[in-house]
Amino acid sequence: MFDTILVGIVSGAMLVLPLLLDGLERKVKAGIQTRIGPPVTQTLYDFLKLMGKEVKPFTGSALATYMALLTILLQVSSLIALNYFIIAERNFQILFAGLALFLVAQASSAMTPLLVPNPFSQIGGYREVVISLVNEFTMILSIGAISLILGGKVASPYAYIGLLSAMITLFITSYVSTGRPPFDIAEAEVELASGIFVEFSGPLLAAYVYGMLTRRLLAKMIPLVIILQFLTDPGLITPLILVPLIVVIWLVYGIAATIVGRTRIDMAPISLLKLYIPLMVLSITGLLIGVYHA
Amino acid sequence: MSEKLKPAKLLVIATKSGRVTKKYPYEEPLVSPDFRGLIEIDENKCIGCGACVNACPPNALQMISDKETTVLRYFIGRCIFCWRCVDVCPVGAITGTRKFELATDDASDLYVHVVHKKPKCETCEGQGGTQKMLYYVVEKSPVTEEYLNECPDCRKKSFIESVAKRRTGGVSE
Amino acid sequence: MLRNTSIIDKYVKLAESSNASLTVDGDTIHIVAKPEYIPGLAGKLFNEFKCVHRTCVATDERPLNGFFSLTHLFTDDSNGFYIALKTYLEGDKPRAPSIVDQVPAADWCEMEARDLVGIEFEGRSTYRLVLPPGWPSDVYPLRKDFQYDKRPSMLPVSEKITITEESSTVPVGPYHPALHEPEYFELYVEGEKVVDVKYRGFHVHRGIEKLGESRMTYQQVNFLAERICGICGFEHSTCYALAVEKAAKLDVPERAQFIRSIVLEVERLHSHLLWLGVAFHLVGYDAGFMHMWRIREKVMYLSEYLTGSRKTYGINLVGGVRKDINEEKKPKILETLDTLEKEFKELVSIAISVPQVKRRLTGTGILPREDAVKLGVEGPVARASGIDRDARRDLPYAAYKHVSFKVPVYTEGDNMARALVRVDEVFESISMIKQLLDQIPKGPIRLEEFDIPPGKIGIQVVEAPRGGDIHFVITGEGKPYRWRVRAPTYNNIPALKVMLRDQPLADAPLTIASIDPCFSCTDRVVVVKEDGSVLKLNLTGGVKL
So where does this one cross the membrane (chain A) (predicted)? Predict the structure, then answer.
């Protein structure tokens, strides 16, 4: 009982984290670009201001609003499931439920711009779908490989190499799913008047952006949760270690995003596959060798 | 391998430069000593000759006359700060400053007027030029003092009459 | 001078073969012919003599001699001559033969002459180019009986592009907040590939030529010319001053020419650094954009230190310059240039090595050499497609005969080649400024007393950061009788139709930006109508990668 209340409190506190961390990232990005940048609470102010604006309907706005709210709901549920896993009890079914909710939230977030009949939304939506297809599939594969290697209690060194390469793949997929440069092409080109955001305004835009930022939070939480569950016992200590680690990884991803450019839709899946296929082949080979030795 | 890591050298450049944003308007603006800003017209020196009005490309300086006065009007909104007026003023009445913070919410702040009196012609009661211009001409060449009381048209007529009197005894009707 | 006379003899023979009269005035060859010989002469000049067609000028000379006149301006780059091919047209509805089938680059300027002066061209399809669609059809602004501040009554015409489920038209512009200047491109896409492009520009036609002929005096037009463009303004005012000085045969002091050249190169630096920043921003590499403009800030401070203003320098007058470069300014200039060169080299080597930047710039927006020659493109766009042309070396003006510099030429013709041409030009400009500062002579900076006789013609080409800019002046009483400006982007925009075909949509803004468009310079209204077949395909058919 006490555990459930604790899970609720921690999840509630973590709901405001994406906005503050995004503001911090913008400050760091501005520092790399030698300017002062907005204050750290800027994203929070923007969110509150947008929520207060009038609601402007357009073709497909009802469906888009529904999908955006659904995305947020799924992501919050995933957050609660992951928190339950690390605070209350290490029930692996809850962990996989949380992961599944996260992946479904990705799908509904990719659907939202496709429901708007504006050519820019369509272009942006299709680009996001293409990236997600390659990325999410690899994320599932790498999580599967990690759980199989760790669950099978194999001790062969090849298995550890396989584990390492699967972990690297997991971190890379988590970076790509946050929608940062070089893979932020869903917003299309700046000169072509943006992509998926073109029709959104007011509370709908606030909800969609909040969904995007929460996705970033979850994408960073998942690899860390999988690592931390070996090192700590269930309880309050885990979130206390987890949150600073999330902050650190968020800033590292932000710095990496600042020093690269934006890729192109036809180059993106090819470059991703060129990176993922060798890594996953290595990790599956390690898994099979470990299974063979066991 | 170092080819792949080259983009990260940007971080080195960024730390060397620091933050270059200046905190203007909370600190002094960064204008060089040669910056061309607002012009200021000295009312005491201006003679109303209109050389600056001829030279001004966007017509920011204009001469507006009515029966008694001529007004030199400087509209800051049109000024392009080229300082041609500073170049051509014969008496050096226009000086340039480095001011550029000119925004205001009242358009009448942007007009500067210098008022001149027009001289009266004895013969025809018409007017032309300004009184200060006549004083300036007299200073430069004292012999003109005798002709100053007439406007240019009457001056022309009396000159033709005096030449005609010397040559032929009078102007024929 | 033997070489010169043999070349002039060739032109004399050409003129005699068409019963035309030829006069040589300094480095300008004036050929006056009857209208029916013009296409033949123009074709021979373009194909045999390998001259470059710059523009054509239509003038209402009825107050002077009762005729309209049409002048085609060519330059012979390998020998350093300007060629003005003039013809007189009779009547109030003049007709002239078109040279478009021999010289495709003359397309837009003929239509502009038709819109503004009313000359009908025979032998080609005509359309309205410069004026808005609702303008009354027999009011010609550049005729002498049209007052510059008259406003004819116009019916506004509005057009809508229908964006529906089936259409796959992606509009870019014209009044979008993300765009820097008003332009309007309609990109017809098939999936993510651009199959065709329709351009309409000239939304900021300001009537500068008419203003220069009516309300302004000679010295005032300098300031007007500087405001034709916000990035390359100084070269417009220099070109105008040089054209008038050439027409009136004024002997401008050497020191003034040196100062003009130094400030021209400073302007080239700032323009290329600006373009590189914008190119990085379009690829998504915003950190490169910020750093490049941080470096450019040093150039802006240098401009203010030398001329008194960060842009629109206002130091040019007919007869010289207004502001001197004192001795105590030299050390600061040299120190700024040294830090600039070091930082720029470092930043460019980092930025080009970012994999996304390199892969997106290479191989996109290709312009083959034959198309480049036919369309008459200018500047870095031409030099990146293998055409070795630079007005500073071929038609030397101001103090450029005293400096030695290389002209960078690349042959690939893609966006990366255009970027590298500009990077090389930055280094060349820095070395040129140092050489000029070394050799600057002492003396006056301005001609005090001079006289400009009416009725003379002056033509000058100046190499702007974007290409060759040409000004044509016929002197009048106290103010120009006719002033014609053709900015370099005017010739580069038609090349976009070739460059944008079969490119991915994501590279369209980058390709459009790679010609470094300066729509304010281009300054004339354009509607490019197509009568070809364009497939409008169904976007719901899926994304073809």
Answer: 5-21, 63-87, 94-117, 129-151, 158-177, 192-210, 238-260, 272-292
Which of C121, C147, C173 lies at the terminal end of a domain, its last residue? C147
Exposed, middle or buried by CB within 10 Å (0-12, 13-18, 19+), for B131? middle
pLDDT at C7: 84
Same domain, C398 and C329: yes
3-state secondary structure of C444: coil
Of the candidates C222, C253, C223, the one whose C-alpha atom is nearest the C-alpha of residue C320 is C253
- Pair of tokens at residue A118: 């504006």
CATH number of domain containing C96: 3.30.460.80
Q: Which of B5, B12, B16, B21 to mutate to test the interface with A (most CBs of A within 10 A)?
A: B21
Tokens of C110: 């003929």
CB C512 within 8 A of CB C185: yes
Stretch among A72-86, B27-41, B52-66, C185-199 having the lowest mean pLDDT: C185-199
Per the structure, how many domains does chain C have?
Answer: 2
pLDDT at C276: 92
Q: Which residues pair with C464 in a beta bridge?
A: C467
Residue environment code for C319-333, b if the CB has 16+ CB neighbours within 10 A, otherwise e: bbbbbebeeeeeeeb
- ipTM of model: 0.88
- Whether the CB-CB separation of A154 and A293 falls below 8 Å is answered with yes
Distance, CA of C526 to chain centre: 15
From B11, B20, B21, residue closest to A32, measured CB to CB: B11
Q: Mutation target for A interface from C165, C176, C285: give the one with most A CBs within 10 A.
A: C285
> 3-state DSSP call for residue B62?
strand
In this predicted model, what pLDDT tens digit does every residue of C494-534 receive, in sequence order?
888 788 777 777 777 777 777 777 665 553 222 222 332 23
Residue C169 lies inside a defined structural domain of this protein = no
Contacts of C409 (CB under 8 A, 6+ apart): C383, C384, C386, C387, C388, C421
Domain residues for C128? Answer: 1-147
Rounded CA-CA distance A138/A234 in Å is 29
Taking the CA of residue C270 as centre, how many other CA atoms within 13 Å lie in the half-sphere pointing to its CB? 22
Tell how far CA C466 is from the center of its chain.
7
B18 reaches A (C-beta below 8 A): yes
Helix, strand, or coil (residue C57): strand
Name residues whose C-beta falls within 8 Å of residue A277's C-beta, 6 or more positions apart in sequence: none
**DSSP structural state of residue C442:** P
Q: Structure pTM?
A: 0.88
In angstroms, the CA A31 to CA B17 distance is 10
Dist CA C186 CA C192 (whole Å): 14
Contacts 24+ apart (CB under 8 A), C336-339: C336/C298, C336/C299, C336/C301, C336/C302, C337/C430, C337/C433, C337/C434, C339/C298
Touching check for B1 and chain A: CB below 8 Å?
no
- DSSP at B153: H
Query: Is C89 inside a domain boundary?
Result: yes
- The values of phi and psi at residue A94, to 5°, are -65, -40
Which CATH fold topology does B33-117 show? Alpha-Beta Plaits (3.30.70)
The pLDDT, as a whole number, for residue C472 is: 93
Residues 254-283 of A with CB under 8 A from B: 255, 259-260
Do residues C139 and C214 share a domain?
no
